[in-house]
Every structure is written in C-alpha cells, then in structure tokens.
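LOG
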Amino acid sequence: MHHEGKWRDSGFRSALTMALLAGTFAAGLETAEADISLPPITIGAGLISNFYDCDKGCIYSPASIPAGDSNVDGFALESMRFYMSGAVTDQIKFTFNTEYTGSSTDTLIVMDAIGRFEFSDTFNIWAGRFLEPGDRANLSGPYYSQDIAPFVDGVGDFYPGVAVGRDNGIAYWGQFGILKVQVGAFDGESLKGDFVADNSRILSAARLTLDFWDPEPGYYINGTYYGEKDILSVGVAAQNQNSKTAWNIDGLMEKKLSNLGVINVQAEYIKDNGLTAPNSLDGWNALVSYLFPQVIGIGKFQLLGKYGQKTEDASATTASDKIKTTEINVNYIIKGFNARVGAYFLDQKDDLTDTTKKEYGLNVQLQI
C-alpha cells in the first residue's frame, strides 16, 4: 500500500508538472505567434490581349501574312505579367516581376528583380534587373503608356535591353524639388544588336527630368495620369557604351480642364550614333489625346492621335530609309491603367521598300 500510494502521489505530481509545462509552452507559443510578423508583400498581375486585322503586314501584332496572301487576322495574347513586391524594412525593399511574352515567343522571363534601397527623396539606390534611365516611353512601358502601340514607330523605347527593355545593373536616383536625377551603370554584354564593337564594356545611362507642375515621384513614370495630375515635364536622357551613344529629349503636358475633360500633348526626339543600329539614325514623334469628362456606362472615352518618323542614314552598303507611322485610338477608360479597352488603327510606310502596312484591332488591358 505504501508503495502504491507513493506511486500515485508521484504520478499526480508528474501529471501536474506536465500540465504546467504544457500550459507554459502554449502561452509562450501564443506570445511567439503574436510577435511573429512577416514583411508586407503585394502581389498583382497584368494582361494585354487583342484582336487584329493586318493588311500587307502586321505592325503591332506578332502575326505574319502567309505566302501568297495579302492579309491576316486573329487573336493575340500580347503580354501577361505577374508582380510581387515587399518591404524588408522601411528603407529596404524588393521587387520581382515576370512576363509571359505572349503569342510572339511563348516564353516566361524574369522582367524585374530589384533590390531597392530607398532612404529619402534625394538618395535611393536600385540594384538588379530593371529599366535603365531612358526616354519616357521606356520608363512607362506598354502598361503605363496611353497609346495602345507606343513602340511601333521605333522612336519611343529605342534604347537597348536584355529583357523587356531591362538590363542588369545599379542606379542612383533622387528628387531635388522639381528636378529628378537618374544615373546608372549596366552590364551591357547581352544587349540586343552587335553594333557596338566591344559590348563587354559597361553601359552607362542617365536621365534628368524637370516637372514644373505636379511632381512624378518614384523611379518609373507614366505616359498619362488621366487627369489625376497636371503635368508639365521635360526630360533629357543619354546612354553610352564603348564610345557609341544615343540620346533623346521628351516632353509631356497634361491638363485637366475643370469639367471639360483632360488634354494631353507629348513629343520626343531621338538621336542614335551607333548604339542600337549599324548607321546613325534619328526620329521624332508627337501625340495628342483628349479624355472626355462624361462617364458613359462604367468609363470615359478618349480620342488619341500620334505620328512618328524615324530616319536611318545611308552607309557604304545600305541606302537611307525613312519609316512613317500613324496611330489612332478610340479608348474606353474604365479604371485608368487597370481596366481599359481600345480600338486602334495603324498605318506604317517604309520609303526604302516602298511598302505600306495597315492594321486594325481591338485591345484589352487589365491589371490587379
């Protein structure tokens, strides 16, 4: 009996001890769970898709006309993007974006992979893969330009890149009142084209932007703000690799006219001295758009017209060439860049080949 009682007493005390330990562990676990906090992460996606009808050749869409025919039509997934960004601390952030390049190449690539060290308005460092300092079209990209086919004239976004206009490198950027400064050094070795004699050299890039009305904070900028800002901006950018250079000047004026809608005017001039083409070239474009103030259904209509002209000089083996491109859009803006639908017409004439292509289409852009 004595031994049995001792065993029961010992078992009771052991059970009590285990219960207390379990309670303490549970309380500690609950406290630990309360203390655990993951950095905030933002996830999103973007889609651009269109129906096209091409005559004599496609300009924006990736299709090609079969031999013996004069036109082609169909549907294309132009682009699909996945976005992810997060903050390690208030000053250290990370961005990772991918792009499915659509019907043209049917591949998934790393678009952006950026370590962002953002300390103040005047001192920020980005490192990894991202857009080099360049023209406004390049820093807006297809998702934040206002026209449906911003790059088909060969004027906008003419700077070289290894992936969707991006390259691997490091850049400083800062805002000093109305002046934004962006300057960086990039790998350059895998850039498109073989026009630079030694593309193992570092590519340097810089941009200065003056915003006289509302500011445009951040590294990237837009082609329009759909009336949310009044913009009067002038930018100058240049890039150099192994003594081959390219530069541009671009301007944007956007004004909300009270209850009369939004007017947008922009223009760009480029000059390339062998960085992206075997011969020197220059070009310019001009765009005018008007966003109607009335909400019809769930959105507003916008009319847009754009003309671009690019000239490549002659060489010992090739003649000079001039390409003229006209774009007309009727856009339906539902929620800015996150939801818009547009009808477009493109006309492009190549003087050297004496050919004219025309393309009609319907375009859808969605982002979350």
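LOG (cont.) second protein
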Amino acid sequence: MLVLMLPAYNESRSVGPLLTRVAEAFRTLEGTASVLVVDDGSADGTAEAARAKARELGLALDVAVHERNMGLGAALRTGLSRAKDMVGADGVIVVMDTDNTHDPGLMPDMVAKLRSGYDIVIASRYAPGGKEIGLSPLRRVLSRGASLLLRVFIPVRGARDYSCGYRAYRASTIRRAFEVFGDGFITESGFVSSAEILLKCAALPSRVAEVPLVLRYDLKGGASKMDVIATIRRYLRLAAAGRRAIAQQAADAARVAGAASRGRNA
C-alpha cells in the first residue's frame, strides 16, 4: 500500500489541480494508494477543497486538521506518524508539496527505486536531468547553498538535494525513526524540517537514492510561505550541529527506549 502525504497550508487553489494529477499517477501504480492531507490551520478552505476534489475523482482521502498553523515540521510530524499506521509492513509513504510544483508522475520511478533496495528516494533538482523553472534567484541560491552546506558538514551518501520535500520512504524506515528518536525525530518547525528528516533517517542508517525532478515553481498557486532569513539561520544551526550530534541523539534515544523496554519486561 502507498500513502501520499500532502502537508498543506492555505492551498485551496492548488490542491484540486494537484489531486487531478495524482489520480492520473495512481493509475500507473500497482496495489492500493490513498491520499492523506494534513491541513495545517488553513483559513481558505483547503480541507474542504481537497475533500470535494477527492469525491469528484473517486480518490481515497483522509484529512488531518491542525486547529492553528503550527508550521511545516508539525505537519510532517502529524502526517508521517499517521501514514506509518495506515500502511502495512512493506508499505510506502510519499511526501509531496501541495502547491502543484512537484510532478506526481515521478511516483512509479520512486517506488521502483525503493523496491530495488533503497530506503529513501529523493526527487532531486540536482540529479542529472533535474532542474528548476520559475524559482527566484534568491530561492535558487538558498536551496543550492543549503544542500551544499549540509553535504559538506553532514554528508549523506546518495543525496544531492537535502531540502526538497518530495520523497518516497519505506514505511519501515519512518517507523524506525519514530522508535529511535521519539519526539525528537522532527524538531524543526519550518522548511528545514525536510533536511532534518533526511539526516536522522540516514543515521539509522538508510540507503538513499535520487530521481531527477523538474521543479515547476511557475505552477505554484500562491506566494511563498518561506521566511528566508529565519530559514538560513536554521540551516546554519543544523549544519553546525553536525553528524556527531545527530548520532549522539540517536544513541541517547535508543538507550532510553531500551531502558523503557526492559522496565516493561521486568
């Protein structure tokens, strides 16, 4: 089973066109597939727009709603936690932006990569054949700079694009991350949370691969929600923490989980 998780904040204009493309992509997948929308406190009827379009298309849809806007990290935490319980042992979780900039047609290639032995597959702007269309020069510099910074300080084998949120995960990898890190799995609240998830899953360890992505920012339905200055600061902080800090956090979390397990079995 595959669950497509869509974190959304005020995406009522984009979610309908995206779900139309998702329905087309689902027809090329084997097995069952459904959509999970995490509405992060939207004020524009995003959840209602998603439900209406899903009914029209005959898509299986679940919606989780935050009563207030809590940030991308919280939406990812809610969505991944719920999605891991929706799929079986061999299930797949795909995460995609809801602003219609990502191509759902990449999902079959991403799933095929997982089946070949990888644990995480990134839709990458920086893989051969990938590119960005319609992105501002500032955003282009930020995304490339962030990925370069993390590749230098916290390299992940197989990864070039650390910040793109379009990924496919083995559900078992996400379950393991929650078991090891607990509430510390996703601590970032903003766009840096995507890089944090990658780094912590890689520390389990996980095998990572990429497929090329053509990012269509020209199809985005509204203005960017990114606070550029705050995001730069958070990337610098994450890079400064380094691989050792993440590995230590994993070890500490594993010890706590082990102690709790021994206590239950005593």
